[in-house]
Amino acid sequence: MVSIARPWADPSARPDLDTDIEDGGRPKGPVPPIPRGIPPRLTACIARLDEGIAAARVLGLDPEQADATRREVAERLGLATEVCVVALIGGTGVGKSTLLNALAGSEVSLASARRPTTGKPVAWIPAEARDELAPLLAWLGVDEVREHGDTWLPSVAILDLPDLDSIAKGHREQVEDLLTRVDAVVWLSDPEKYRDAVLHDDFLRTWLPRLDRQLVALNKADRLGASDVEPVRRDLERSLVADMADQTGTIPNVVAIAAANGDVKAIRTWLEEQADAKRVILGRIASSVVSSLDDLAHEAGVDPDKASKPLLDPGDRTQAIDAASAEVLRLVDLRSAEAQAVAATRAVARPKGWGPVGRIVGWFYKSSGREARVADPTRFLHGWTDRGSLAPALEALRAVVDRPLREAPPAIRPAVATSTDSRRLAVRLRGAVDAAIASRGELEPPSSRVWPALGIAQTLATGLTVISVAWLVLLILLRPPVDVVSLPVLGPVPIPFILLVVGLVGSLVVARALAIHAGWLGAQWARALATDLRAGLERAVADEAFSPLDRVDNARRSLWQAARGARDACGQS
């Protein structure tokens, strides 16, 4: 066994893993890119993590742990993927150093009755992998390194870590920090500590779902009677089942060993199974990704193993939108808008179809302001806010979001509360209604080629009426001879009088025809306009009423899809 100098002890010799390394060598700054050449399935797995982190940020969740996983994934893939790192983890006095020495066949890590014995991580590595492992061990922050020349484990590096329950400051933090970056773990306990609360409550319950390759070893089995070893081992196994309650992941095997007597065959066999280092590393990465996404999904209140459900019940949503739309339509008053549209069409038709009289009447109609009051649908629609308040519509929407707000998980409740804020909703809804109305632009009434023809007829009728009146005046003043026409009942009637009646009747008929045609055309336009506006307003209410809540829901669904998809992409389904 040979102790070696550390070429990576000089900071200048360390790999370029960004700057500002602290907390045991955890890099800070931009996330390193994923190296090329990794399996496509793992690329898809990591992509799911990126999707989940993005969705978590929309929800206001803190993705710090997932970000750290993402960073460590990229960094680990760039370091020694032909050798996996196995950590020996356990409490004070359970025999981690003794186990490592038994595996090595000589003293690698100091074992002593003095506690704690291991103050820093000690690495036992194959000598032929020294150069390849140098950057990896630097990344792990491991200074104490021992080489071996055995051919037994050419692709495994074993770390003896400080006690997880050590009274020495910083030991537990070292263990927790390294747990995020090692590839496999041997959890070590003994008959006295196998039910220890620190081991189970603070470590196993947290880390069992996060790690892909794990083994639990009950050391010092020689201190138990032969008949007691199996019951204790099974009791430890049952406690692991309890630790994994309501969590995903595989419960690791539990073996009994006696490291002090060299009885570590079960450990050696398990380590030999880790010989496919790349598979172990990729499995560890995949497990970390799935676990990180599961944690985010839990915070968001979604379960990757169950169907995704929206925060707001679809039935309640539809009912609320219908009620709010009805209130908005009441304010906009499409029935009156239709009447305005018909009146506007007639106002356009009047100067075209009434001839000179129509132009005079139209001028008075407009200059008096009456046309603006009763025949301007654009002005009428834009004045919808003067006809009442949005409060009833807002109340219809607010009533249905109370339950989602109460039932939302605490972590995303601020995002849900912001998305359902009534003042912001009022601004959005008012803007949406204004936009729906404005999108129609300046409403131009329809026109018709019939109207000018009616205008010519009206002009002729008016001219005939004027001529007839003038002729009658001359008859009264000058009494010239005039032809008469004998009519039944009426007897002889002067021709000027007959022409006057014909002109007046013709003018009334033309005026009535114009009114009917313009009213019919205006009614068609008004109905189409009302239908279009109704659809636009209802769409505006539907789009804006719950749009911020929909963004929250979409982010939850994206996170659910990422966590669910990771099970398949990462090979954890």
Q: What features would you describe in this structure?
A:
This protein has 573 residues and is of the alpha/beta class. It folds into two domains: 2-306, Rossmann fold; 314-545, no CATH class. Helices cover 57% and strands 8% of the residues. It contains 20 helices and ten strands. The strands form two sheets. It has an eight-stranded mixed β-sheet, sandwiched between helices. Strand 7 (213-218), helix 7 (229-243) and strand 8 form a beta-alpha-beta unit. Helix 1 runs parallel beside helix 9 and helix 17 packs antiparallel against helix 19. The longest helix is centred in the C-terminal third of the chain and has 51 residues, at 495-545. Mean pLDDT is 84; it is low at 1-28 and 112-116.
Brief write-up:
Helix content is 57%, strand content 8%.
| Fold-level CATH name of the largest domain | Rossmann fold
Numbering strands along the chain, what is their spatial order in the largest sheet?
Answer: 1-4-3-5-2-6-7-8
Percentage of residues in DSSP E strands: 5-15%
Main sheet makeup: 8 strands, mixed
Total domain units:
2
- Summed over residues and divided by their number, the pLDDT gives a mean of 84
Portion in helices: 55-70%
The shape is: rod-shaped
